Structures are given as C-alpha cells and as structure tokens.
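ingest -> validate -> predict -> emit
validate: passed (alphabet ok, no gaps, 292 aa)
predict: started
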Amino acid sequence: MEWQQLHYFRTLANMQHMTRAAEQLAISQPALSRSIAKLEEELGVPLFDRYGRGIFLNHFGESFLKRVTAMQQEYDKALVELQELNNPAYGEISLGFLHTLGTNIVPDIIQDFRITHPDVRFHLSQNYSHNQLKLLQSGELDICLLAAIETEPPVMWQELWRDELFVVVPRKHRFAKRKSVTLEELEGESFIHLKKGYPLRKTVDKFFKQNHLQLQPAFEADEVATITGFIAAGLGISLLPNDENYNPERIVKIPVKGTVCERIIGLAWMDHQTVLPAVAAFRTHVISLFHK
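emit:
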C-alpha cells in the first residue's frame, strides 16, 4: 500500500465519479481504476459498489475513508511541524544549564537570541554538569551550558567564559569583614565541599593541590544550595561561584587574594547528531556573544 493509492482513493471517494476524479488527479481513468482495484485487493474488501457506469462508496469504503482522512490530517500536521523544525526562525531547542546561570545569564542569552528568532521555543532543564552530560548523550538535550568537564567525541565543547570563585563564610565568621582572603588562610578551616566527581569539586581540589594545601572537609553535599545552607548555619566555609541568591544577612562572599580562582563555563553539544537549524543558529549565537 502506498500513500499515492490512499490519495487516489480519497479523491475518488469524495467525488464518486471515475472520470472527474481522474481529471482532478491528472492521470488516466484506467490508471486510477487499476490503483483502486489494487488497493481493494490488498485490503481484501471492496470499497466501492459499481452500478453500470456509476461508482459509489460502500460501508467498507465509508469506514476506510474516515481513517484515511484522519491519516491525511495527521500527515499534514507532521509536514507543517517538520517544515517549522527545518526553519531556523521556528523550531525547538532543549537547553540545559547550571542552576547558578538561571538568574541572569541564561535569560539574557535567550532574550538576545529572540530579537532575531522570536518564534523559537525553548525547553529548559536546570541541572549539574555531569547530569547535563548524560542528558546530552541520551538525546534529551540539544545543547547545554556547563562547567568544564572531561569529554570525548562525539561530545563537543567550547569554552565561553570564566567565573570567579569566592570564599563564602557565615556572617559571624572571623573573615566576614575582610576585603580578601588567601587560600593559605583557609587551611585548617571546616570546609564544606561538593562530593567527589562534581566539576566544581575537581576545580577547587586542583587549586589547593597546586598550592600544596590540605583541606579538612567537614561536610560533603550534592548541591551548592545545601552548602550555602550549612554555611549560613555556621557549620563551615567554602569556595563557590558568585550567586545572587546568597542571603547577605547570613552569608558573606570574599575575593581570593594571591591566586586566580576561577571555574570555566562552556557550551557542549553532540557532534554526530543531525542538528536542527534553530539549534545550530542558537549555538552560533551563544558562541559569538562570548567571542566577539
């Protein structure tokens, strides 16, 4: 059974006149007759009753016409959706990003992109870097903004910018009124860390190792929000990226002196996947924003 056969059937069913239907379809009457006969043979039932030169849709044909009409409507919808997806002015983008980027950076990026692509739809997913990577590899995300992480092809990576890390302490901590703190001064402090495996954990560990310093993790958490909650309760300090959600009444952030403490943020995508035009346009847009 071919789509053309269904199109021929639907036309004849609506017109119920072999000659006019053939003219409408721009084919010969015998060709239309053969197509309908072949369709009926494949279905195992007659779709039309024939009386002399007349042809009329029967009960089988009426039932089949309803299904074919529904199929045609779904096909037309699918065609429109595919055309939109293939148009960079439309389409959908599944974007993943770190929680700390959701306050300003991601909204600003999307707002800027929508100046030229107002009809593109976004599906947003806030998650940690390693979770984003899994979603990217499974195809649930098209593109993601995450911290520097070890990747291998077909995962592609492009650095975008660097975030300064701050010493974050409770409001009543002895460092709270300082303008800056060195990493050496953090040695011996009760340190609240992310669990091993997180990119930020690896970054912070690297800074201390490079400076031959030892950390004393008092607690290990899965989320930055948990760490800041423990800090606010006076249970320790940490080295974290800036976040406008920090409560200034309970937490103080202090620049690091003497060592450049930064985390790298970049864009990741899958190289082997068929890239929708809207996704490709957004990727180019984001990279150009940070590499002018």
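The chain has a mean pLDDT of 92.
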